[in-house]
Amino acid sequence: MDSKAISFEEGIIEKFEEFISKQYLVELSRVINEGRHSLVIDFRELDKFDPELTDFLLESPEDAIKLFQTALRRIEMASEVQLNIRFCNLPENLRILIRDIRSKHINKLISIEGLIRQASDVRPVSTVITFECPVCGTQIDMKQTENTVKEPTMCSCGRKGRFKLVDKKLVDTQRIVVEESPEQLLTEAQPRRLSIFLTEDLVEPKIEKKTSPGTRVVVTGIIKEIPIVDRGSKSTRFDLIMQANNIEPSEKEFEDLELTPEDKKIIKEMSQDPLIDKKLINSIAPSIFGYESIKEAIVLQLFGGVKTERPDKTKVRGDIHILLVGDPGVAKSQMLKYVASIAPKARYVSGKGASGAGLTASVVKDEFLRGWSLEAGAIVLANKGICCVDEIDKMEKEDRVAMHEAMEQQTITIAKANIHSTLKAETTILAAANPKLGRFDPYIAIADQIDMPPTLISRFDLIFPIRDIPNKEKDEKLADHILSSFSKPEELVPEIAPEIMRKYIAYAKRYCKPKLSSDAMLEIKSFFVNLRSQRKKGEEEGIRPIPISARQLEAMVRLAQASARIRLSNVVEGKDARRAIRIMRYCLQKVGMDTETGELDIDRIVTGITTSQRSRIIMMREIIRELEAKYGANVPLADVIDAAKEKGLEESKIEEIIEKMKREGELFEPKHGVLRRMPR
Ligand code: ADP
Ligand code: MG
What we know:
This protein is α/β, with parallel strands linked by helices. The protein folds into 4 domains: 3-89, 2-Layer Sandwich (mini-chromosome maintenance (MCM) complex, chain A, domain 1); 94-249, CATH 2.40.50.140; 261-511, P-loop containing nucleotide triphosphate hydrolases (Rossmann fold, 3-Layer(aba) Sandwich); 611-677, Arc Repressor Mutant, subunit A, CATH 1.10.10. Helices cover 39% and strands 24% of the residues. The strands form 8 sheets. It has a 5-stranded mixed β-barrel. A 5-stranded parallel sheet has the order 13-16-19-12-20. Strands 25-27-26 form a 3-stranded antiparallel sheet. Helix 1 crosses helix 4 and helix 3 packs across helix 4 (61-73). The longest helix is centred in the first third of the chain and has 31 residues, at 3-33. 37% of the residues are buried. The structure holds adenosine-5'-diphosphate (ADP) and magnesium ion. Magnesium ion binds at residues 332-333, 390.
């Protein structure tokens, strides 16, 4: 080594020692007293002190850190301890998007930000193995970088062959996979991932908690290449991984979307607009025609209720879960995709496509460490945001169990292999399901129509059945709407642009925690009590159904809070409560109304109580089916009436039911006096 190189290294050591002595002595003594294993240095402070140090650090991070450690040991109080030196707060220009990492970054220090998708269990990995020569007794240290043990090829005494393993240095290692977070993505792009290895004190239990899947982190580290092992033989292709120097939870949750003073001014002005509700509703999927009530509910869902912790520590979620059940081709998927594209921290997944634990969480094999790894699904990754789950009825069995917990407790617990973990899932769910029979049937309980456990269905605050019933007037408007989206797409731009809508929602969620006024409480209470005390007319056994449950009561509170948030108000007023009641009533009517008595009946949603009308309609279907055997598809009306009378139905009821079935698109009259079932 020439003297210039030595003086350069010595120079670095001296400068770093000076930096620590001037700015980090207090921190250093704290680290040592608390028995911690690393000293975290603010990169920007070091850069301000002497850019030569940071330049060298970025250029040759491994050498630099070694010199810095030497410097540290020269300080008296640190002379006896082995401390890792970690860096935080790298400047923005060194924060590289995962998709932009290239081979030029190899062996350089950079930082990345993203969501932890996978975290393996912690395993000891040997970094250095000491071998002994059986002939001369020399000990040889071999650095281990690959999966298989590297032995010395020859001893200094000239001996070749097997060596005796005498010692190994083990380092606790964990592999995490970090994925780009949705807002870093260009629209629709698949998020890229990066494997990151954490070692030593970065895998201590205290830190491990902060690095569970679903957390947003900033990782600083050195990019390394490792050969891809192809069936045992090394290939010329390499994977880029990161050897972490430091990992910190990122403060930037979606609620902390950056709002400039200018943004705040615009938001406050918007909130004064008496038409703000309408404008927001019209800005939800303007290309989709109709569905005002659903869009209104989605707006409320985006704002959300307030998560409350009661004095006894029980928590009530603020998230409003919505389920759309309906006929195929009624724009359910479109709606979900749209919401995922405008809502902050949103994810769209299909229950069908999400293999394994794409939805909740799963334990997968870790090919690097040969252990197990906990992988977060969409609901965990959308923590504090919204997850749009399409075809939720087709989700995997394992996910179903986890969904129950996710939707009420807002956590996902997983215990498999040797991984036991509870992940946060404070996620709002907007789901869509197709009815088992292809079409939604208002006379059959929802629980019997969707392939989903009733207990899960009942966790949705609002359920909207969507039916595709031919209706000339509506169909004309729908056709005009869809066709105009092809000819004049510019007319369908949302009134409020998604960027500002996102900020508006973020602002409301951050600053408004509306409380119920006595007016609002009274409204909700009387609706709830009245509905529950309703007696069913003509109830033979005298058993009173419980029409709505405490769940719906909580749901109404959430909806009312969300309604107040739209105005950026901290008070839930009577009108907010009335809106919540109106929406709740609308849903209950669609799914829970006994269409005969006109009463609401929540039991119909989940258990499928036999209502008077339902049984009649089913009877009528049977009659028509039987007659089809005789006449073919076209069945004479007179025969239907006769057969129904025979079964004890009154004439007036018979006509009413036939009319109803025609209205609902189940039957039609191809010519006078003839009935025919609509093909399904
Ligand atoms: P689903 O998921 O309910 O089966 P999709 O979302 O795939 O249905 O919708 C099918 C197509 O029909 C989409 O291209 C959608 O835009 C269109 N469509 C259906 N209903 C409407 C509507 N009310 N307004 C505009 N487009 C609609
Ligand atoms: Mg669909």
